[in-house]
Amino acid sequence: MISNELGLQSPSLPAYLLYPVAILSLLIIIFVMARTRDRSAAFVIGAAWLRYVMSAFHTITYRPLAAGMSANALASMGLFVVGLMTIDWRHLALRFLLPFYVLIALAVVSALANGGITPGLITVITKHGYLIVIILSVFGAMRRAKGGDFMTAMLWSFLPVFAYQALSVIFGVGKLTETDATATSYIGGYNHEAAFSVILATCLTVACFSSKLNKQLKTAIVLACVVGIVMANYRTTLVGVAPLLLMYFAFSSLRRFPLRDRPFVVSFLIVLVAIALGGVSLLFAERFNDVTLATSGDVNFFKPPDAYTVEESRLLSGRPRIWSAYIFAWLDGDLTEYVIGFGPESWNDVFPLYAHNTLVNYLYEYGIVGVFVLLWVWLSMLSAALRIRHPHAGVVVGAHLSFLVLNMSTMPMWMVEGNILYGIICGYTLYLLSLQSTPTTRM
Questions:
Q1: What is the pTM of this model?
Q2: In 10 A of CB 14, how many CB atoms?
Q3: CA angle, corner 248, sides to 169 and 413, nearest 5?
Q4: How far apart are CA 203 and CA 188, in angstroms?
């Protein structure tokens, strides 16, 4: 469940730092799980904590353990099975899950058309099943939670992540970035900036969703997550969380004012956001310099990968060239591959790097059908969020938009960390939508 590129690149924290934090946070998380008094809530909290801690031990957990699978992969399969025992199986019939089932069915069809059952198919089914279990666990936990207790309790899962990042800063354990040998990413001894920053984006999302935290504490956690992403030095996630942050600060500010004053407040916020974006662009001018060049229109990116110059290959961390390699490889396929792709996880046998774009990856692995089904998944959940009539409606829409932006430059749906993030967003969406359903209305 990890790409070749995300192998064992980053230095891990020393054992005398890793183990005490893991043990202390384990004791805390057991106490939190016990206090939830709900199986689904306890499962999500425990599953997230376990994934985040195991990923910190990547020099151990990413290595093949049995049947070519890593400890992380085996743990994910086990948690998928455990999760099935915590959910209400009647919720598996929710119509909003239909696109996810079609996604799994497409993976099976594509695998059978490209050689039969493969380890890649098992991995994909496990990840999609894991996502569905997280969605339904969050949905069930929220329906039974009192006063928003679940989201507040969920925040404890991220304690070791912040502790490890703080320790990596204090002890100078960093990782050189992909494009700038002088820039350091402080990611708590984790393997890669992508997965680590997605974890922080998940914490930010949970904090925004929490209704029990007081305003000051919630804002402090949100800002801590943003600072953490900046320290992780992964601009993709920094850009990705922008819609969520915009919605969170905008809607939390608007609720303080009467309706007649809100147009003036919105105008002020637009000006404030413009000033903030200008400040960010100056602060990170060097890191975003190639973004400006790439969007200037002076560079033609739609060409075979071997037609890229050295300078063009460096733009946007090499993503356009990677996307080109996948797209032109798909174009070289036959009719079957145009329609349903080369099969789940087939990129591993061809490319050294993962696609860094979920749509491009699905085009290669599942063809045109895969792209349409994936868009169906995303847009059906986004449309569900747009139907919500709740004070958190704007924040939920912002979370969906952030997830979509993330998928354009990295692949959170391909990571278990990303499955946890999207599972929380979709589960909370379905919960808020259920609040306005009549007893006879079926979701």
A1: 0.90
A2: 12
A3: 65
A4: 15
